[in-house]
């Protein structure tokens, strides 16, 4: 037995996907990240396309980063009971070196 079912859908060129409709009005963050397996480091370049959607001119943009937020064991984002699981080879600080 062969059953063939068909339907007709009229194409509407005025419809756009959400991404296409808003793509030109949102900020874009693009990152290129390389992991060095030997040194266990991530090297990253980030480009930001900022779209000013306000009615005011902006002459500065501030980026908030926390370069050494986890440089000390006391500031690690884990409970003390989770430290062994989070750092199975012992604590290793995280930091950012901006060049």
Describe the protein:
It is a single chain. The longest helix has 5 residues, at 18-22. The protein starts with 17 loop residues before the first helix and ends in a 13-residue tail after the last helix. It is mainly beta. 9% of the residues lie in helices and 18% in strands. It has a two-stranded antiparallel sheet. The chain contains two helices and two strands, in the order αββα. It has helices at 18-22, 83-86; strands at 28-36, 41-49.
TL;DR?
This is M1 family peptidase. With 99 residues, the chain is mostly beta strands.
Strand content: 15-25%
As a percent range, the share of helical residues equals: under 10%
Please tell me the overall pLDDT.
Answer: 76
Task: Point out poorly predicted stretches.
Answer: 1-9
Assembly state of the chains shown = single chain
Termini Cα gap: 70 Å
Largest sheet strand order: 1-2
Question: How many individual β-strands?
Answer: 2
Order of helices and strands: HEEH
Rg value? 24 Å
Overall spatial form: elongated
Sheet having the most strands? 2 strands, antiparallel
Q: Specify the number of helices.
A: 2
Query: Which class of secondary structure composition applies to the elements?
Result: mainly beta
Write the layout of secondary structure elements.
Elements: H1 18-22, E1 28-36, E2 41-49, H2 83-86
Antiparallel strand pairs: 1-2
Annotation keywords:
mainly beta; 2 strands; disordered N terminus
């Amino acid at each position: 037995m062969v059953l063939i079912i068909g339907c007709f859908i009229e194409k509407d060129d005025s419809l756009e996907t959400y991404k296409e409709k808003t793509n030109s009005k949102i900020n874009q963050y693009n990152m290129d990240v390389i992991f060095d397996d030997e040194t266990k480091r991530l090297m990253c370049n980030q480009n930001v396309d900022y779209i000013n959607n306000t009615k005011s001119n902006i002459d500065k943009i501030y980026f908030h980063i926390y370069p050494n937020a986890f440089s000390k064991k006391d500031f690690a984002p884990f409970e003390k009971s989770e430290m062994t699981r989070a750092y199975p080879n012992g604590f290793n600080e995280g930091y950012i070196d901006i060049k």
